Amino acid sequence: MKLATWNVNSVRKRVGQVQSWLSREAPDVLILQELKCEARDFPELDFASLGYRAEILGQKAYNGVAVLSRLPFEVRARALPGLTPPPGAEAVDARYLEIALPQLVIGGLYAPNGNSGGIEGFRRKLSWLDALIARAKTLLAADIPLILAGDFNVCPDDDDLAPGALAPDDALVRPESRARFRTLLWLGLTDALRALTPEGPIYTFWDYQAGAFAADRGLRIDHVLLSPTLAERLVAAQVDRAARAAEQPSDHAPVVVTLD
DNA sequence: ATGTCTCTACTATAGAGA
Q1: Is the CB of A207 under 7 A from strand B?
Q2: Which residues lie closer than 8 Å to A9 by C-beta, 6 or more apart?
Q3: Which nucleotide is nearest to A12 (CA to C1')?
Q4: pLDDT in tens, A218-240
Protein backbone atom coordinates (compact mmCIF):
# COMPACT_ATOMS: atom_id res chain seq x y z
CA MET A 1 0.00 0.00 0.00
CA LYS A 2 1.26 3.42 -1.01
CA LEU A 3 0.02 6.44 0.95
CA ALA A 4 0.97 10.08 0.56
CA THR A 5 0.23 13.38 2.27
CA TRP A 6 0.54 16.74 0.53
CA ASN A 7 -0.26 20.25 1.69
CA VAL A 8 -1.16 21.76 -1.70
CA ASN A 9 -1.78 25.38 -0.61
CA SER A 10 -5.02 25.82 -2.60
CA VAL A 11 -6.29 22.73 -4.41
CA ARG A 12 -7.89 24.84 -7.16
CA LYS A 13 -4.53 26.40 -8.00
CA ARG A 14 -2.85 22.99 -7.99
CA VAL A 15 -5.37 20.69 -9.77
CA GLY A 16 -3.07 20.06 -12.74
CA GLN A 17 -0.08 19.30 -10.52
CA VAL A 18 -2.06 16.93 -8.32
CA GLN A 19 -3.45 15.16 -11.38
CA SER A 20 -0.05 14.60 -12.95
CA TRP A 21 1.38 13.55 -9.60
CA LEU A 22 -1.39 10.96 -9.14
CA SER A 23 -0.78 9.66 -12.66
CA ARG A 24 2.96 9.36 -12.08
CA GLU A 25 3.01 8.05 -8.51
CA ALA A 26 -0.28 6.11 -8.46
CA PRO A 27 -0.71 6.09 -4.67
CA ASP A 28 -3.58 4.14 -3.17
CA VAL A 29 -4.44 7.06 -0.90
CA LEU A 30 -3.49 10.74 -1.03
CA ILE A 31 -4.33 13.07 1.85
CA LEU A 32 -4.50 16.76 0.86
CA GLN A 33 -4.32 19.77 3.17
CA GLU A 34 -4.91 23.50 2.81
CA LEU A 35 -7.62 23.08 0.21
CA LYS A 36 -8.59 26.74 0.78
CA CYS A 37 -12.06 26.18 -0.62
CA GLU A 38 -15.47 24.91 0.34
CA ALA A 39 -16.39 21.33 -0.55
CA ARG A 40 -18.62 22.44 -3.45
CA ASP A 41 -15.62 24.11 -5.14
CA PHE A 42 -13.32 21.07 -4.81
CA PRO A 43 -12.34 19.73 -8.28
CA GLU A 44 -13.70 16.26 -7.53
CA LEU A 45 -14.27 15.17 -11.12
CA ASP A 46 -10.67 15.90 -12.13
CA PHE A 47 -9.56 13.20 -9.70
CA ALA A 48 -12.50 10.84 -10.28
CA SER A 49 -11.37 10.58 -13.91
CA LEU A 50 -8.11 9.08 -12.61
CA GLY A 51 -9.91 6.52 -10.46
CA TYR A 52 -9.87 8.37 -7.15
CA ARG A 53 -12.91 8.89 -4.99
CA ALA A 54 -12.77 12.05 -2.88
CA GLU A 55 -14.01 12.83 0.61
CA ILE A 56 -13.81 16.55 1.25
CA LEU A 57 -13.76 18.58 4.44
CA GLY A 58 -13.82 22.12 3.11
CA GLN A 59 -13.88 25.66 4.48
CA LYS A 60 -13.94 29.05 2.79
CA ALA A 61 -10.47 30.54 2.16
CA TYR A 62 -8.56 28.61 4.82
CA ASN A 63 -7.66 25.11 5.97
CA GLY A 64 -9.45 22.11 4.47
CA VAL A 65 -8.51 18.41 4.30
CA ALA A 66 -9.44 15.84 1.67
CA VAL A 67 -8.84 12.15 1.10
CA LEU A 68 -8.39 10.79 -2.41
CA SER A 69 -8.50 7.00 -2.55
CA ARG A 70 -8.75 4.32 -5.19
CA LEU A 71 -9.47 1.79 -2.42
CA PRO A 72 -12.97 1.68 -0.92
CA PHE A 73 -13.31 3.51 2.39
CA GLU A 74 -15.84 4.98 4.77
CA VAL A 75 -15.77 8.21 6.76
CA ARG A 76 -15.37 7.86 10.53
CA ALA A 77 -15.00 11.46 11.71
CA ARG A 78 -14.98 14.98 10.27
CA ALA A 79 -13.54 16.69 13.36
CA LEU A 80 -11.49 15.81 16.43
CA PRO A 81 -13.76 14.93 19.37
CA GLY A 82 -13.83 17.48 22.19
CA LEU A 83 -12.73 20.58 20.30
CA THR A 84 -14.78 23.76 20.57
CA PRO A 85 -15.04 26.35 17.78
CA PRO A 86 -12.72 29.38 17.93
CA PRO A 87 -14.31 32.53 19.43
CA GLY A 88 -16.82 34.03 17.04
CA ALA A 89 -16.95 30.97 14.78
CA GLU A 90 -19.96 28.68 14.51
CA ALA A 91 -17.95 25.55 13.63
CA VAL A 92 -14.48 24.17 14.25
CA ASP A 93 -11.89 24.67 11.51
CA ALA A 94 -11.72 22.05 8.74
CA ARG A 95 -8.59 20.30 10.01
CA TYR A 96 -9.29 16.62 10.67
CA LEU A 97 -10.84 13.95 8.46
CA GLU A 98 -10.76 10.32 9.54
CA ILE A 99 -11.52 7.41 7.24
CA ALA A 100 -11.49 3.62 7.54
CA LEU A 101 -10.13 1.22 4.95
CA PRO A 102 -10.74 -2.51 5.42
CA GLN A 103 -7.51 -3.01 7.43
CA LEU A 104 -6.77 0.36 8.98
CA VAL A 105 -7.89 3.84 9.97
CA ILE A 106 -6.31 7.00 8.55
CA GLY A 107 -6.51 10.40 10.23
CA GLY A 108 -5.74 13.15 7.71
CA LEU A 109 -4.86 16.37 9.50
CA TYR A 110 -3.82 19.99 9.25
CA ALA A 111 -2.73 21.29 12.64
CA PRO A 112 -2.93 25.03 13.42
CA ASN A 113 0.25 26.96 12.65
CA GLY A 114 0.05 28.81 15.96
CA ASN A 115 2.01 31.92 14.99
CA SER A 116 -1.04 34.15 14.45
CA GLY A 117 -3.46 35.41 17.07
CA GLY A 118 -0.88 35.98 19.76
CA ILE A 119 -0.74 33.82 22.89
CA GLU A 120 -4.38 32.79 22.38
CA GLY A 121 -3.56 31.52 18.88
CA PHE A 122 -0.68 29.49 20.24
CA ARG A 123 -2.92 28.08 23.00
CA ARG A 124 -5.43 26.98 20.38
CA LYS A 125 -2.66 25.15 18.54
CA LEU A 126 -1.70 23.29 21.71
CA SER A 127 -5.35 22.46 22.50
CA TRP A 128 -5.76 21.11 18.99
CA LEU A 129 -2.69 18.89 19.36
CA ASP A 130 -4.01 17.72 22.77
CA ALA A 131 -7.26 16.69 21.09
CA LEU A 132 -5.25 14.81 18.46
CA ILE A 133 -3.32 13.00 21.21
CA ALA A 134 -6.59 12.05 22.90
CA ARG A 135 -7.99 10.73 19.62
CA ALA A 136 -4.84 8.68 18.96
CA LYS A 137 -5.06 7.22 22.50
CA THR A 138 -8.66 6.15 21.92
CA LEU A 139 -7.89 4.42 18.64
CA LEU A 140 -4.70 2.76 19.86
CA ALA A 141 -6.44 1.54 23.02
CA ALA A 142 -8.97 -0.18 20.76
CA ASP A 143 -6.08 -1.87 18.87
CA ILE A 144 -7.06 -0.20 15.63
CA PRO A 145 -4.19 -0.04 13.09
CA LEU A 146 -3.74 3.70 12.63
CA ILE A 147 -2.01 6.16 10.33
CA LEU A 148 -1.90 9.85 11.22
CA ALA A 149 -0.81 11.80 8.15
CA GLY A 150 -0.64 15.48 7.40
CA ASP A 151 0.80 18.88 8.18
CA PHE A 152 1.44 18.81 11.93
CA ASN A 153 3.03 22.28 11.90
CA VAL A 154 5.73 20.97 14.25
CA CYS A 155 9.46 20.59 13.55
CA PRO A 156 10.13 17.69 15.93
CA ASP A 157 13.88 18.08 16.30
CA ASP A 158 16.84 20.23 15.31
CA ASP A 159 17.57 18.09 12.22
CA ASP A 160 14.08 19.01 11.04
CA LEU A 161 14.82 22.62 10.20
CA ALA A 162 17.64 24.43 8.43
CA PRO A 163 19.84 26.42 10.82
CA GLY A 164 18.32 29.84 11.30
CA ALA A 165 15.19 29.04 9.30
CA LEU A 166 12.96 29.91 12.27
CA ALA A 167 13.19 32.10 15.34
CA PRO A 168 13.63 30.07 18.56
CA ASP A 169 10.19 31.16 19.76
CA ASP A 170 8.39 30.20 16.54
CA ALA A 171 5.29 28.11 17.26
CA LEU A 172 6.66 25.31 15.03
CA VAL A 173 9.68 24.72 17.28
CA ARG A 174 8.53 25.85 20.72
CA PRO A 175 9.08 23.22 23.42
CA GLU A 176 5.33 22.96 24.08
CA SER A 177 4.70 22.05 20.41
CA ARG A 178 7.57 19.56 20.27
CA ALA A 179 6.49 17.98 23.56
CA ARG A 180 3.09 17.20 22.07
CA PHE A 181 4.67 15.60 19.00
CA ARG A 182 6.86 13.48 21.31
CA THR A 183 3.75 12.46 23.25
CA LEU A 184 2.32 11.04 20.02
CA LEU A 185 5.52 9.01 19.55
CA TRP A 186 5.42 7.84 23.19
CA LEU A 187 1.92 6.49 22.58
CA GLY A 188 3.65 4.00 20.31
CA LEU A 189 3.42 5.76 16.96
CA THR A 190 6.39 5.58 14.58
CA ASP A 191 7.57 8.60 12.58
CA ALA A 192 7.86 6.90 9.16
CA LEU A 193 10.48 9.23 7.64
CA ARG A 194 12.72 9.12 10.72
CA ALA A 195 12.33 5.34 11.13
CA LEU A 196 14.17 4.87 7.84
CA THR A 197 16.40 7.98 7.99
CA PRO A 198 17.18 8.48 11.68
CA GLU A 199 19.64 11.35 11.30
CA GLY A 200 20.41 14.32 9.10
CA PRO A 201 18.23 17.03 7.60
CA ILE A 202 14.92 16.11 6.00
CA TYR A 203 12.57 18.86 4.87
CA THR A 204 9.01 18.84 3.53
CA PHE A 205 8.38 22.61 3.35
CA TRP A 206 10.34 25.52 1.92
CA ASP A 207 9.10 29.10 2.28
CA TYR A 208 8.31 30.96 -0.93
CA GLN A 209 10.40 33.86 0.31
CA ALA A 210 14.08 34.64 0.06
CA GLY A 211 14.99 31.74 -2.25
CA ALA A 212 14.45 29.20 0.52
CA PHE A 213 14.09 26.20 -1.79
CA ALA A 214 17.14 27.09 -3.91
CA ALA A 215 19.16 27.42 -0.69
CA ASP A 216 17.53 24.26 0.76
CA ARG A 217 16.44 26.28 3.77
CA GLY A 218 13.47 24.13 4.73
CA LEU A 219 11.44 22.59 7.52
CA ARG A 220 10.10 19.10 8.19
CA ILE A 221 6.53 19.66 9.36
CA ASP A 222 4.58 17.10 7.29
CA HIS A 223 4.58 13.70 8.95
CA VAL A 224 3.23 10.17 8.65
CA LEU A 225 2.87 8.35 11.97
CA LEU A 226 2.23 4.60 12.08
CA SER A 227 0.82 2.39 14.82
CA PRO A 228 3.00 -0.63 15.73
CA THR A 229 1.66 -3.33 13.41
CA LEU A 230 1.77 -0.92 10.47
CA ALA A 231 5.27 0.27 11.39
CA GLU A 232 6.42 -3.35 11.08
CA ARG A 233 5.30 -3.26 7.47
CA LEU A 234 7.08 0.00 6.59
CA VAL A 235 9.31 -0.44 3.52
CA ALA A 236 9.81 3.10 2.17
CA ALA A 237 9.30 6.72 3.23
CA GLN A 238 10.38 9.64 1.06
CA VAL A 239 9.87 13.32 0.36
CA ASP A 240 9.13 14.10 -3.29
CA ARG A 241 11.23 17.22 -3.68
CA ALA A 242 10.62 17.26 -7.45
CA ALA A 243 7.07 18.42 -6.79
CA ARG A 244 8.42 21.45 -4.91
CA ALA A 245 10.68 22.28 -7.89
CA ALA A 246 7.71 22.57 -10.29
CA GLU A 247 6.42 25.81 -11.81
CA GLN A 248 4.09 27.58 -9.36
CA PRO A 249 4.45 24.85 -6.75
CA SER A 250 2.92 24.45 -3.35
CA ASP A 251 5.36 25.44 -0.62
CA HIS A 252 5.12 21.83 0.65
CA ALA A 253 6.34 18.60 -1.00
CA PRO A 254 4.46 15.29 -0.78
CA VAL A 255 5.57 12.71 1.79
CA VAL A 256 5.17 9.20 0.38
CA VAL A 257 5.06 6.02 2.48
CA THR A 258 4.97 2.41 1.28
CA LEU A 259 3.73 -0.43 3.48
CA ASP A 260 4.22 -4.09 2.65
C1' DA B 1 13.14 39.58 9.48
C1' DT B 2 10.32 38.62 5.48
C1' DG B 3 12.49 39.54 -0.39
C1' DT B 4 6.20 35.27 -1.79
C1' DC B 5 1.98 33.26 -2.53
C1' DT B 6 -3.13 32.73 -1.85
C1' DC B 7 -7.21 34.08 -0.13
C1' DT B 8 -11.08 37.67 0.53
C1' DA B 9 -13.44 41.96 0.08
C1' DC B 10 -18.26 47.40 -1.36
C1' DT B 11 -13.72 44.40 -8.50
C1' DA B 12 -8.60 46.48 -7.28
C1' DT B 13 -5.65 46.94 -3.90
C1' DA B 14 -4.56 45.92 0.95
C1' DG B 15 -4.76 42.92 4.95
C1' DA B 16 -4.42 38.29 6.86
C1' DG B 17 -2.32 33.95 7.13
C1' DA B 18 1.21 30.87 6.17
Answers
A1: yes
A2: A34, A36, A250, A251, A252
A3: B6
A4: 999 999 999 999 999 999 999 99
